[in-house]
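Q: Give me the 3D complex with oxalic acid.
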Amino acid sequence: MPPLRLLVAHPDRDTEQAWQAALCTALPEASVEAWQPDSAPADYAVGWAVPAALFATQPALKAFFCAGAGVDDLLSSPEVPPQLPLLRIEDAGMGEQMADYCSAAVLGWFTRGADYARQQAQGQWRELPLQQRADWSIGVFGLGALGQVVVRRFEQLGFPVQGCSRSLLASGVVTLEAFLRRSRVLILLAPLTAQTRGLFTAQRLAWLPPGACLINVARGALIDEAALLAALDSGQLAAAQLDVFATEPLPADHPFWRHPRVHLTPHAAAYTVIGPAATQIAQRIRQLAQGRDVQSVTGWVRRDRGY
Ligand code: OXD
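A: Here is the predicted complex, encoded as structure tokens.
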């Protein structure tokens, strides 16, 4: 049997080389190359923000592996052949980073980091009342591989935590309104799909308890950003920790940059950890090469669902 042929494409050359090396190690039986417009036909490709030409020049691909967690860009790209199976990374070290990011924000609010920073700036020595974990209910919207790690972290930290997902909403076990009304901290970790785009409107943000906090580590377009700003301005929301935005990089004149209640990071809450991700992809390629149906392989993207 001819060796499996694998292509890698990443806009950052060093990252592309790191992927190539990790996949060579994880899948020594395959030949792994960086994609070029004249690359010979390959069986599989792995990449992030790949050039549109990759798909046009590689019509024989059996599957494409997204080198990140979110596949919304791939699914909305007209260049990606509609029949090409797509698979995404599942956790592979990103869950722990998401849990670190979210718990750091919550513990900062819980221990009044911003309040004491303000007092320090004013030279003020004043003990503020102790807060109770029971008053800091955490709501995690999106219970995929990453959401589940975040839920577990807050359970370990002793906070009351509840989750909400597409399937829980569909089953009627929970309504979005009931979930939001119980979330002092709302953490968004759901994929961007036709159902979740713009889901968090002014009306839905108003279902959060007064003074609630929001963390978005999913996609900016889940929220109506103008409504979020209005909720922060009015004090309905006390704070927002934002890692993702409707437009990235965040435009220099965007009000989020200087808003006193917004803390932001440049889409850096969790990075793909290339070693474990390559091991995961190698396992899946072996399963496919042994004839396993792609629909039964973990990480297979259901296009009808959008993730
Ligand atoms: C993402 C990622 O999907 O960084 O945003 O993996």
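A quick observation: The chain has a mean pLDDT of 97.
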